[in-house]
Design a protein that fits this description.
mainly alpha, 2 domains, about 0% strand
Amino acid sequence: MCNIDLIEHIVQETKNVFKGTTCEETHFFYHDALSQMTNKETQEWMRGKQYLDMWVLPINGCNARTIYTDRPVGDLPEMIPLDCSLFEDLHAGVHRHVSTTYFLENDDPKMFSLASPTHISSAYTHLFKPAHGTGNGIPSSKQILEDCKNL
């Protein structure tokens, strides 16, 4: 996934969660130190969009003299349900959809394919972030809650 798409998704979904709350204008998001989000060019782009101000980052020397100086700590998959198990549900769902739609014509909008980076991105985006009103997506809200409770 493109860095910009990932960050725009994080920012938009965070806005959606806080819409209508007392924190609608003052919300933040947290994400671990993905290299896609911590590289210099991405940081400059985020600063220009004022997204960097929304990201919970260490301050006052927290993480000083470590590999995480001035940035969030690395990934701990077993504490992040998507990394720990839910991405596997998404991969399995994409493969099920590719198998199920294999015999459709290539120009059929219901067709799922892994034939190119564009097709792969479309397949994963369609299932992970379905259009409004088209269902829960994969993983479902129910799966996410179940996995979070089991951590």
